[in-house]
Amino acid sequence: MTTPAPGPVRPAATVRPDDARRALLAGSVGNFIEWYEFGIYGYFATVIAAQFFTPEGGSEVEGLVKAYASFALAFFFRPVGAAVFGRFGDRVGRRPALVLVVCLMTGATAMIGLLPTYASIGAAAPWLLTLLRILQGLSAGGEFGGAVSVMTECAPPGRRGLYGAWQSFTVALGLLAGAAVAAVLASVLTASQLHGWGWRVPFLLTLPLGLVALRLRLRLPPDEPPALATPALGSKGRPRPRSGETVRAVVLGVGRMMGWSAAGYTFLVVLPSYLQSTLGTTFQRALLGTVLANLGFAASILPAGRLSDRIGRRTVMVAGALLVAGLALPLLHLVQDPDGPAYVKGAALFAAGAGVGLMAGPGPAMLAEMFPARVRCTGLGLAYALSNAVFAGCAGLIITEVVERTGNVDVPGYYAAATCAVSVAALLTLRGDDHRRALR
């Protein structure tokens, strides 16, 4: 079925430069907080496992698996948050949805820093932590759809990929900030201090960050609800999108994102705990490796987004997926080699992160271009949330459990390579000129 060429959601010429920059900043800051928190949970997974999931005399590996199970559970509430807050953003407006999710995210994260541990209140501790993780999952699910919608709809002509890439870039900044805070605490505190109270500090730091984000989002200009506006969105006289078409687009979006989600969490978040529990690496060295991977990720995101504005989303994202699929195992073997030079291992981790960045840079704009304005918040938010729930949120749980049961330390490489290979097939269905078409 052929449809007429869609008109722009917000003609870029009508968006003032100040409003575009404000939308970019307000959309990015909440995402920074979200990934900062998810980063520090991953980096402190072994500490959190000891404090909340390991009774006296319990197995450390079993506690780590339970910590990752709580981590994964939060991801499975992301699709719920994407549906609820996405619908709210499509029918009420982008700004009120973004304000609600940043308040929920900040409050839940700060509360983790105040929770009593297993030693204090027993079995209630892991349940309370899991409840807060669920609230974080709900807010994170609503964050992506609203933020990417605002950033891409306000982008100047020919820069939608670059503006959308800032969403992914703040993922890298959030993870790097979390790694930096963790590294500083690990350096200045003793092991007993870190396990006793030091792990709480990174979570409590989200409170001032959240207040800054709230202020920026309250300064966004009021927007007309896309589901109610017709002439301004170029949809006058066109039928509402069918639910079946939206569902198919969501499923396809999940396939296109699968490699980005799985490889991203494998190399950028799960790596520290894998290096410690499987290879016996120290906490400080594991964090250093993660920082190098995240630096590679950060370095490639914005150039990849900008390049996709010139040559298309498909070319850049397929190149990234192929790079990770082909190099995941060789790079992992370099990291595992106890006699390998440190600079070679560092370069391998940097390259792994850069490959993920080639997918993450154009990814937000690619998803925004898949859905019309009336369902954009909901559709792209669900695709992102489902992909992350299945292939990212479960990454730590799957890798830790499979390595424990099989003794095969190559599991992370196989996982990243397989998911990226599937993504290549899904990404090849993209049209080569999607980056030149106006948003529907």
Structural account:
With 440 residues, this protein is mainly alpha-helical. It has helices at residues 17-43, 45-52, 60-76, 78-91, 94-112, 118-121, 124-153, 160-188, 191-198, 200-204, 206-218, 243-279, 283-311, 313-336, 342-360, 363-368, 376-392, 395-406, 411-427. Helix 4 (78-91) packs antiparallel against helix 17 (376-392).
Along the chain, the helix and strand elements come as: HHHHHHHHHHHHHHHHHHH
- Quaternary form: single chain
Class computed from helices, strands and strand pairing: mainly alpha
Radius of gyration (CA) equals 21 Å
Helix content: over 70%
Query: How many strands?
Result: 0
Instruction: Indicate the proportion of strand residues.
Output: under 5%
The tally of helices reads: 19
Q: Give the averaged pLDDT, no decimals.
A: 81
The shape, in one word, is globular
Largest sheet: none
Q: Distance between the terminal alpha carbons, to the nearest Å?
A: 16 Å
pLDDT under 50 segments (min length 5)?
A: 1-13, 230-237
Architecture blueprint of SSEs:
Blueprint: H1 17-43, H2 45-52, H3 60-76, H4 78-91, H5 94-112, H6 118-121, H7 124-153, H8 160-188, H9 191-198, H10 200-204, H11 206-218, H12 243-279, H13 283-311, H14 313-336, H15 342-360, H16 363-368, H17 376-392, H18 395-406, H19 411-427
Helix pairs in contact: 1-5, 1-7, 1-8, 1-11, 1-12, 2-3, 3-7, 3-17, 3-18, 4-5, 4-7, 4-17, 5-7, 5-11, 7-8, 7-17, 8-13, 12-13, 12-15, 12-17, 12-18, 12-19, 13-14, 13-15, 14-15, 14-19
